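re the bet — no i am not wrong, look at it urself. input seq straight from the record:
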Amino acid sequence: MQIHHQIKQQPFSALAQESDYDDEQPLLPTKHSRKLPPPVCPPSHLRSEVEAIFDAPVGTLIAYSKSQTGELKSAEEEMADAYYAADSVVQRVEFILRGLNSMISSESYVSRSLETGAMSLEEGEGGAGGDVMTKQDCFRAMIDLLSRIQEEGDAYDELRKRIRSQLTTSTDPTNSDSSSSSSNSDSDDSDDEEGVSEKDEEIFNEWSGGLNERMREVGFKVRQNSDSSSTSVNDASDADEEVSQEDYQFGASPGLTVHMVDLVLDALACLCEEEYGTKSSSSSVDLVQLMGKDASPPPAMGKDLLDTVLHRHWLDGGDIGLSAEAKATAVGQGIGIGSGTGAGSLSNLSPSTNFDVRTCPTAMTFNAVIRIASNFDPKAHAEAVEKYNILNGEGSSQRSSNGADKDTLKQQQEMLRDITIDAAFSTYSRMKFCSALTLRALKDSTKNATSRSAVKRQAKLVAEGALTGRNSATYAYLLQTVSNCIPPSLSRGNIAFGLYHKACDQEGVIDENVIKAMRSIGGYEEDNNDDGTSAPPPVSNGPIFDNFLQTELGAGVSSALEKGRSLRQDRNYKLRRHLDWDGSY
């Protein structure tokens, strides 16, 4: 295919891990090789690379191939073939998205990775001097690339389903020998003639039974494809609740990876910070104009992207806490068998080495959504939408004098505020129920804990939900969201105190950013009274909270950080980072 001729043959994709990969090293979706940093598409090549992807017809980027023998492939073969077929285009799209992300902001994830040498910019292979894309074009291209690669995966799934349906029909013994269903010998002969061996049937039954059991555990009714008489289906009225095992036995569709979504979420967070952040005096990007007035606001878009990642992780066997009976020790209870990205044992405190970076969410996936919410300004966004409508002739310039229109604007602001709070706190809650994230944090946080008493304490923390994959960035961004969206009150003080207590005492992830975010609840400036003298908070959130804030944090950031370190409240703040050199996620 023409679009692949420029791809270097090197293992820089998350799908191209070497067989001798050191399992002791953490698998990150941006670390594609032990030796080579992930390449970044240069700005001069971006437009041509993006157009090459969009010009390819749907279904040609990830092509399905039938079995050479013409027989039905096993589930393991189908999954392996799917990801091998998608590997080349996945490398290409990740390569392009990294280049687009670097163009969004100098503070973006890829830009900072280039500065530290964690990624490398691929320069000088033709195409120099090309048309450089603007920041707006880059973000639109990132969103469109996600949709395009999802569409490609869906097309692959549909084609696979049709081909397997044809092969299943052609090898069905009931079609070839409908005259005598009571004769076992004739049925066996028909099986042999059609190429269905006893071993193939055993493999299919094993996968079918395991999948059906998982689907029942999460509350789905199961519909068997081949023999409806052997499957218990309650009523015809419940048919809309039934699902086919053929739709789930291969896990998530090929193409879309967590790394791709992470890059888009990071770009959106940078744009929100640039437009609504207190440190930015002016913004070169209008989010309302960029995304459209009818599009979902940034926090809702971030939450939708997170839903997509978690759904794919769930299809691959990851436990994301959907079942009402889910317990802390129930790991890998996703509906699909897939590659088993949720494999592991919380009860035995044994993290799995089978984390699949294609579909397994990371701390960056969750924290980027909370970062979007922390930088988003509901009031400013609602006013920008109002202004956009007026400039496009959809509103009246005299609306501000109308009391009813003022009420409408206030309602929009309150709705956006609720959306922002929901995005931040629902993401925070999901971090607890994502078992793979907890197991990763457990692996990093307990590598020095070998005594029996220490292991017992860790088991208790896991059972109580105190040990999660949340880190310093999680609490810093969440406290910023509370400060921005909830007015000064007893409620705001109580919420902030609960989060700060959990970050310090239970999670042990306190750092400078968490302290600054907590001080902002009381109205402290970042650079004031850092001389050791305790000062009362300028903004009151109730006498009890004010007294606590003045006592613990009123003397300044340095003093509070030193006190926290003496109490070992920072014991995990580096261990749980997405990258050890970067505290943003």
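see?? The chain has a mean pLDDT of 75. told u. also The longest strand covers residues 221-223. so pay up
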